[in-house]
Write a structure and sequence with these properties.
Layout lengths: L2 H126 L2 H9 L3 H21 L1
Helix pairs in contact: 2-3
Length: about 160
């Protein structure tokens, strides 16, 4: 073959080679891409399974935490209820204490008055002797007044004897 013929056929050869490369290149590229895609799909599938497994574990953990949260919430409610009840009992007790203080003050005032009355009565009996009872009997205007004064003197005498 001569050079001239070769140069004439060269464009045909180049076109044929380029056409052949273009025709077969997608198959070669496609074969490599398909293999890569299968590997990538397999890798993604494994990753998906791992993520689903992690998701299941996290759901179980979340369920357990939710249960713990409900339990803690219930305990908090019980404690708050007990605190509220205790506060109510404290308030009731404080009210009772205040009422008892008032009663004690009233009773102390009554006791003070009664002591004064008894002191005056004892002083009168001491000064008058038995004449005070006789005067009460003689000075009574009615039988019921006489009975009342006699009972009063007897009650006072009994109280004095008890305290002495």
């Amino acid at each position: 073959m001569s050079c001239k013929k070769f140069y004439n056929k060269l464009p045909k050869i180049l076109v044929t080679v380029v056409t052949a490369v273009m025709v077969f290149l997608p198959y070669i590229a496609h074969a490599a891409s398909t293999s890569d895609l299968y590997n990538q799909q397999s890798s993604i599938s494994q990753e998906k399974k791992q993520l689903q497994s992690i998701k299941s574990q996290k759901q179980i953990e979340a369920s357990g935490l939710s249960s713990d949260l409900k339990s803690i919430s219930s305990t908090i409610n019980q404690v708050e209820s007990a605190i509220s009840q205790t506060r109510k009992e404290i308030a009731d007790t404080q009210t009772k204490i205040e009422d008892l203080k008032i009663q004690i003050q009233n009773e102390e005032a009554n006791l003070s008055r009664e002591k004064e009355k008894q002191g005056n009565l004892i002083a009168n009996w001491y000064m008058e002797g038995e004449d005070g009872l006789m005067e009460a009997v003689i000075g009574a205007d009615s039988l019921s007044e006489l009975v009342d004064k006699t009972r009063y003197y007897d009650a006072v005498r009994a109280q004095i004897e008890e305290t002495i």
